[in-house]
Amino acid sequence: MADTSPPSLEWSAQYTLAHSRRGQPLSGDKIKLSQSALEGLLSAASNAAAADSRRDLPAYDPYNSATYSAYRQAESQYQDQRQQLPYPLTFRLVNPANGRVVYAGVREFSAEEGEVELSPFLQEGLGLKEREEDRKAANDTIVDGESPEKDTPVSTITVHAKQLPKGTFVKLRPLEPGYDPEDWKALLEQSLRSGYTTLTNGEVIGIEHGRERLRFLVDGFQQEQMDGVCIVDTDLEVDIEALNEEQARETLKRIAEKMTRLPGSEHGSSAGGELDLFKAQQGQVLPGEYVDFTLNSWNRTQPLEIELNGNDGEEDVDLLISPFSASQRAKPRIDEFVFGDIDSRPRKRIRLDPSNAELEHAEALYVSVHAFAPAQIEANGDHQEASPQPRHFTLRASHPDPATSVDDSQGGTETTHQPDEIQCKNCLQFVPKARLVLHEAFCFRNNVLCPHGCNQVFQKSSAEYQNHWHCPHDTANGDSAMSRSKHDTVFHPAPLRCSCGTQETFSSYLTLARHRTSTCPEKQILCRFCHLEVPQGGDPDVPNAEAILSGMTPHELEDGARTTECHVCSKLIRLRDTQNHMKVHDLDRLSRPAPVLCRNPNCGRTLFVCSKAGDTRAGEKQGQGPGNDVGLCSACFGPLYVSMYDPENKALRRRVERRYLSQLTQGCKKAWCRNEYCASGRKNLGIAGSITTKDALPMIKPFLDGMMKGSEGSPLHFCVDEGSQRRRQLAEMLAAEEDPPGKGGYGLTWCVGALEAASGSLDGAREWLKNFAPVRGEERGR
């Protein structure tokens, strides 16, 4: 069997390192090359294919049929392979400045000409971080009028096309102790599959785990002589060993401590679960951890109140809430929540009104209790707990009185005093006038009023007064070093950045949470088109105007560009246009003229023929109308038609009379007939007694008198074929159904038209009615 794998490439080029650009940064071992690099690779693949196809061929002899056939076969193989590139494309990157080497895979060919974009992992592996810092420092020290690129260090990278063997075994060593091996398998599998094409011996790979970054040293492969392997489309066995014996002991110690603090254990956080409106939840949470609850149902017409109380007056427990919907999938965290109360108070309360826009499409509510992990504080004599104790809390959800305001729900009451009472200037209490002198003498000696305007009174020697603080940046205050540390950490930290790569910095965790639940490209959504949980995508610094106007996320806007066939009109439409397209069909459905039934109550046809595409006048447009003024379809009027001049319809009247007399006295002799004005039909219906001509004339006279009144006249009862009669019976059955339920069903005229368009198929008729017919209520409203 001939080898059809692409030939090996021989291609290399030198590029300058591209400066960091706005947008989604590269991850893992990915690079971006220019379009000319792709053209060079294709050219190298063509040359390699030509050389490979002619390898081991004898000297060409045009008069030798054997060599001629071999060369023709080689030429055919070359044509098949000349545009093929190896999969996956892997490259060997070399930094000429220090000789460091690392292997990489390509993300795309969209870089500027002469430049190569590298992920942070590759820059670190090639030792380019220092050069990048030097470049930034040089740009920061330029003088006015000088070009920023002048005299700044430029890194040059040599890129070689290099096909690596498939890896089967790799040994990894964690650089820090304490990583739980139970977490490594899933994290490694996900990270390597999504971000890495190759592994380079001696390099350090990083894996994001929440806010932690796990770092592993690649310490050898099964092929000892290889310094890099490809890990795509291969079964890779991973062996994780501690870096040394001391690290192994420390890891085991931390894992043992972690086991004692697992969720649900005595010293660990509570397990969480479902939140009950009628029952308070007692629990505990360790500092820095979360206890997650879910509220699946509540009365959406009433306000909802979630209250959290620290059982021991603890101020470091926080209440975080996020709705679970198509646009919000993540559980609330301190840097990603929609509603939150994170002030330094033991009692936290959040009230959600039914008019809140964030709750409009919420399937449930995620409620999380978080405990702040204080940093070590030495200035005030406090210290971080060596073994932090769980914080106990009580969580309850309820429907408060709608007339109660938010301020009232906080428990504020207005104090009253007697007319003979005077307010103390120090503690602001009202005391009797006769005792004011004694009270003030004691009060000024022992108590002090906060000079910052919060009107709190403390004992001069109390710890609360010593620890009382006011934030210089806002109106927050507290009475403990922990509350101040929490306030400064949450509301006034060092500038925060989001991992999505945005250039914007955030002054607090509140603004970061607002970004991560709104415009952050990494926010998880449930795509309405692919029905998968995916990042919403987009550029965080340049909002997509089309996405904002359409109400879709950038991912949905891109995914919705795929086309599908409309099940109503069979046209190709974009997925994101389906909703508007169906609205057009709905307007057509309500404005479509109703079918006109044949005047014969036994007939299952319309006068102008209904089509499968929903046109109730399809026959008229094709010249296939009834062709008469009686109101009969062409099939029922056919036996009455003659080519004679009859302006007063006297001859037509006689033909109708003779047909009635023939039906009533002789019958149509058809076993399926159910026409009560036919002798055969009366027999099939079980109506006793025969009708003579004398008895028949008075019966048919009213029909003859109203014959030329069209649809306003009396019906004309003629025998029809079995298929038409069956369709009429099925139409009457459909009209009696209440489908859709609660909307009254469809009228008889539409049911007859549906069965005519569906050729008598009951399922097809129901589908036709659903797509093209108005229900009875809509029909009356037109």
From TrEMBL:
<dbReference type="InterPro" id="IPR055418">
    <property type="entry name" value="UFD1_N2"/>
</dbReference>
<dbReference type="InterPro" id="IPR032353">
    <property type="entry name" value="AZUL"/>
</dbReference>
<dbReference type="Pfam" id="PF03152">
    <property type="entry name" value="UFD1_N1"/>
</dbReference>
<dbReference type="GO" id="GO:0034098">
    <property type="term" value="C:VCP-NPL4-UFD1 AAA ATPase complex"/>
</dbReference>
<feature type="domain" description="Ubiquitin-protein ligase E3A N-terminal zinc-binding">
    <location>
        <begin position="658"/>
        <end position="683"/>
    </location>
</feature>
<dbReference type="GO" id="GO:0031593">
    <property type="term" value="F:polyubiquitin modification-dependent protein binding"/>
</dbReference>
<dbReference type="Pfam" id="PF23580">
    <property type="entry name" value="Znf_XAF1_N"/>
</dbReference>
<dbReference type="InterPro" id="IPR004854">
    <property type="entry name" value="Ufd1-like"/>
</dbReference>
<feature type="compositionally biased region" description="Polar residues">
    <location>
        <begin position="406"/>
        <end position="416"/>
    </location>
</feature>
<dbReference type="InterPro" id="IPR042299">
    <property type="entry name" value="Ufd1-like_Nn"/>
</dbReference>
<protein>
    <recommendedName>
        <fullName>Ubiquitin-protein ligase E3A N-terminal zinc-binding domain-containing protein</fullName>
    </recommendedName>
</protein>
<feature type="domain" description="DUF7590">
    <location>
        <begin position="268"/>
        <end position="399"/>
    </location>
</feature>
<dbReference type="InterPro" id="IPR056012">
    <property type="entry name" value="DUF7590"/>
</dbReference>
<comment type="similarity">
    <text>Belongs to the UFD1 family.</text>
</comment>
<dbReference type="InterPro" id="IPR055417">
    <property type="entry name" value="UFD1_N1"/>
</dbReference>
<dbReference type="GO" id="GO:0036503">
    <property type="term" value="P:ERAD pathway"/>
</dbReference>
<dbReference type="Pfam" id="PF24503">
    <property type="entry name" value="DUF7590"/>
</dbReference>
<feature type="domain" description="Ubiquitin fusion degradation protein UFD1 N-terminal subdomain 1">
    <location>
        <begin position="82"/>
        <end position="131"/>
    </location>
</feature>
<dbReference type="Pfam" id="PF24842">
    <property type="entry name" value="UFD1_N2"/>
</dbReference>
<feature type="domain" description="Ubiquitin fusion degradation protein UFD1 N-terminal subdomain 2">
    <location>
        <begin position="166"/>
        <end position="242"/>
    </location>
</feature>
<dbReference type="InterPro" id="IPR042556">
    <property type="entry name" value="AZUL_sf"/>
</dbReference>
<dbReference type="Pfam" id="PF16558">
    <property type="entry name" value="AZUL"/>
</dbReference>
<keyword id="KW-0833">Ubl conjugation pathway</keyword>
<feature type="region of interest" description="Disordered">
    <location>
        <begin position="380"/>
        <end position="418"/>
    </location>
</feature>
<dbReference type="GO" id="GO:0006511">
    <property type="term" value="P:ubiquitin-dependent protein catabolic process"/>
</dbReference>
